[in-house]
Amino acid sequence: MRARPVGLSVIIMLMALLFAAPGQAAGFLEMNFYLSGPRYDAWVPPCNDALALGKIRARFGSKEGQFWNSALRILNFDQIQETAFRPWADDAIPRRFCSAMALISDGKWRTVHYAIAEDAGMIGMTYGVEWCVVGLDRNWAYNPRCKMARP
Hints:
Number of domains: 2
Number of strands: 4
Largest sheet: 4 strands, antiparallel
Order of helices and strands: HHHEEEE
């Protein structure tokens, strides 16, 4: 009975050594076959885009309801303004940073910081939106006070 586990462990070690061989450099076709890198058009919708604000509204309601057992919803947006556009290097993903005031269903106006990024949506087919509501960042993803959601 002892021979089987020892033999199995030797086979596993040999397979690990076989697959741990050093990697090789990319061949000619691998280096030159359609690997040109990202090409951004810098087309990012404006801060008051209805679809971007709709994504924030829907995802906020979903997050509050599913994860925090809260009935809070965003009812309205006001004072929408752009805070920065492509603040980093030209090769970085184009982003438009925005801020707005959101009326929450608890009757309070809260600041929302959000970024709209090119090709950052579902599988890179559309723009993506990241957002943070000041005072309701319960998992501290953009802590402190949504600072990490700003440029």
